[in-house]
Structures are given as structure tokens and as C-alpha cells.
Amino acid sequence: MHKSERLFQLVNLLKGRRLAVTAKSLAAHFSVSERTIYRDIQDLQSSGVPIEGEAGIGYVIADYPLPPMMFSYDELTALLLGSKMVSAWTDPELSAHAKSAIAKIEAVLPAHLKQQHEHSPYLVSSFKHGPQQQSFSAKLRAAIETQRCVTLDYKDALQQHSQRVIEPLGLVYWGGKWTLIAFCQLRSDYREFRLDRITAINKNELTYAVSPDKNLNHYVELVKAKYAEEIAQHQGQAPDKSGQ
């Protein structure tokens, strides 16, 4: 384990404990010598980490907000990949925050991690996520956060146009397209609307409230239950090839 990663894990370990942890226990946890732990503690204290304690008694971290120190390569890959997805696939405001986060992460990458990151096998494309969808995403996110209804002008797969007053509950990315999950006041039920088929979004003054049987998590549970039922039915109808 690289020393920088060990220091990061050491801080996290101490932050998660209420009682002092001895150098002997820490040395066993990281498979290093107690002398190495003493040096690590001194290095962290010198850098401003509020570690209290002494040899033979143990160490704790004072109740003090600590900034993130460093991440492993796999953690950085996950963070950067997620930030790039947000940057490419969401609305302009979230995209700007994601780009700012990416810049901050890349600015403090150690040389060996920066080199690995430059050769990452992952690429996030913004193809098919144009300005109109980004604008719709921003309007819908604002409506969801304030629990305000909106009026959608929508074109379905058959190119038929309709207008619906809906209660937006959440935005789901299925891979390739964004879908708005909403409660349709016309149908009094959940409905899904693809963002690339929305032609206009208009605000109105109506508000709505979520409830145990009308919210995004409830919708997801219904979808899971329906999917499980379809799988069970399919397996029950599958031909018996055992010969019995």
C-alpha cells in the first residue's frame, strides 16, 4: 500500500472510533511496524490533522471537520467518471458544478495517479444530449425541488401530441435517454415521459405533495415488483427440459 493511501485510511479509521486506538492495533491493521505508525501519526499531526494521544495509550482524532485528503486510483476513477457523466448528461447548472469538481480533483492528483487517469479506458460522450434536453432537465429539476406542477407538451412514439399537467417526481437515466417519472393528473397514476419527446414545458402555480404511495421510491418498488412477476411467469412457462 502506498504511504499516501495508508495515511488517508488511517485518518478515516481514527475518525470512526470514539475510543483511542493503540499503535500496536493500527500496526496490525495495516500490516506495518509500530514505528511506521508513529511516523505516520507525526506526519499527520505536522500537516494539521488534530490527532490526540501518545505512545502506549493510543490515538484519537478530535471532533474537527477534516477536508478530504486523498483517494485511491479506483476511487478517483469512480469520482471522475461520475462527474463526467453529470457534466455531459444533466442541465447546465449541474454540469458547471461537475466541471468545477473535475478541475479541483485533477489539480491535486499526484503525478502517478494523473498519469494513470490520462490513460483511463472510460470515455463519456455527450452525443444526443443537446441544449434543449439540458434546458428541460433544468426546469424539471427546479420543479421537483419545489414540488410544483408543470404542463408538458408531449409527442409520443406514434407522433401524437398531447398536453398534460403532471407532478414531476424524479429524473431517471436508463442509458441513452433521460426519462421523467411523474404523477399524471389526467390519468391519476404514474407515467413516464422521455425528455427527447417533450416539446415544451410550462410552469403553473399548482403545487403537490408526495406521500407513501406517491413518490419516486414507491414508483421504483412497483417497477421492481412488476419485473419480478414477469420473470417468475416466464420461468413458470419455460419448457421442462429435465425429462421428468
TrEMBL record:
It holds the Pfam family HTH_11. Residues 6-59 form the Helix-turn-helix type domain. Residues 138-201 form the WYL domain. PANTHER family: PROTEIN PAFB, PTHR34580. This is HTH deoR-type domain-containing protein. It comes from Pseudoalteromonas peptidolytica F12-50-A1.
